[in-house]
Amino acid sequence: MIYHLSIAAHDPRRVAAVLAELWRGEVHPFPPIASGSLVVLAGDDRNSLIEVYPHGTELVPAEGDADCISTHNPEASSRSATHAAIATPLSRAEVMEIAAREGWIAKYRKRGGAFGVIELWLENSCMMELLTTDMAGEYLDTMTPAGWRQALEAAAPRA
């Protein structure tokens, strides 16, 4: 289980507000890491949360027996392989409406023909895969160890 995820944004307040809307959650300050950081609490049964740091924030190990610290990299890329699949109680239409309002890329995709996701590109640079209730059911039915082995076997080239 993943308890939380951290991402960076050019406008952390805006991104956090949209994530809270998608979750019907709450946004709060998150001062321990970097000035301007926020935390989005889903308010779900797992206490899921996403930390949103200002763009350029990088976590680095601290000396000795201390918590990590943050530095700022003014040359940080807006792109990253980091992404998350998160559930939303909203409908596909509601998610698409939010994306359109924000001017962000969003599109429905069927991953491997097995489960649907909405690729929502926060600030058009950080991808989140949104799963509505129906999509989450497809995902949970598919993404099991046995399901993954079946998918690999089905895709394996035949000799």
Question: How would you concisely characterize the structure shown here?
Answer:
With 159 residues, the chain is α+β, with helices and mostly antiparallel strands. Helices cover 28% and strands 33% of the residues. The chain has 2 domains: 1-76, 2-Layer Sandwich (Signal recognition particle alu RNA binding heterodimer, srp9/1); 78-159, no CATH class.
- How many individual β-strands? 10
- The string of secondary-structure elements, in order, is EHEEEEEEHEEEHH
Largest sheet: 4 strands, mixed
Structural class: alpha+beta
In total, the number of domains comes to 2
| Head-to-tail CA distance between termini | 37 Å
Q: Beta-strand percentage?
A: 25-35%
Unreliable runs, pLDDT <50, ≥5 residues? none
Give the overall silhouette: globular
Mean of residue pLDDT values: 92
Portion in helices: 25-40%
- Please work out how many helical segments DSSP would assign: 4
Biggest sheet strand line-up? 1-4-3-2
| Rg calculated over all Cα atoms | 18 Å
